[in-house]
Amino acid sequence: MEKRVTFNERWLPYLLVAPQIVVTLVFFFWPSAQMIWQSTLLEDAFGGNTKFVGFDNFVSLFNDSAYFASARLTITFSFLVAAIGLAVSLLLAVMADRVIRGATIYKTFLVWPYAVAPAVAGVLWGFLFNPSVGTVAWLLHNVGIDFNYVTNGNQALLLIVIAAVWNQVSYNFLFFLAGLQSIPRSLIEAAAIDGAGPSRRFWDIIFPLLSPTGFFLLVVNIIYAFFGTFGVVDALTKGGPAKATEILVFKVYNDGFRGQDLGGSSAQSVILMVVVILLTIVQFRFIERRVHY
Questions:
Q1: What is the pTM of this model?
Q2: CA nearest 164: which of 128, 113, 214?
Q3: 64-292: what fold?
Q4: What is the DSSP string of 232-252?
């Protein structure tokens, strides 16, 4: 028999959702409206002189080769963070899901990195790979690998990808582990009785049943790569060397707060918001069709 929750007072449901509505209006819709309006203005550094310029800020961006270079870098960076992060997290979740001695301790250690703020994660990895005092950099140098992210743009990009993946891997791990534990063991045992090996059981049974979790994490990780990695970049490379790691979210901050181009920075924010919304819509429209609920 289906049980449904009923409210005797008509105003009670609205009262319960009111805090979330207020938070959404104050911290999303209002700043977004301010950002859209500011993207049509030309302002000085202190906001004293303001001039309405319409779409001139957007035209300037589309004529700026540096902006397109940052956009291409962001696409590459987001793909690497999402792909590597999901693959590593799934591997760790599969290994932790096995009945082995000390599995609880392993799970606890794997969850800890999520408690570290992105800026702190950037500082930690910066220390490890510091070309002067970094332990990992010293070990790489002893095996003939000269790793210097301060002067090498490709190495700097690799390092922020590693730091961003490490900071997000615990979040992905938790959801993948929960998804694995929700799969009925009877299905896996039946496949094993039918002679399916571990690899066959994973790809034919476990992986398809994890598709809802994987789809959710794909959306979350792409949004994280676009917005949540600012702290990693700011603490680790500050967009350098030579803007080799200046992804779009950092470029918004760099142009707006350091370059004092408030209108241009707002225009970049509008474009970034629209791109992420479109990516999310595309994922739900096309990728979700392959998801088995």
A1: 0.87
A2: 113
A3: MetI-like fold (1.10.3720)
A4: HHHHHTTT-STTTT--HHHHH
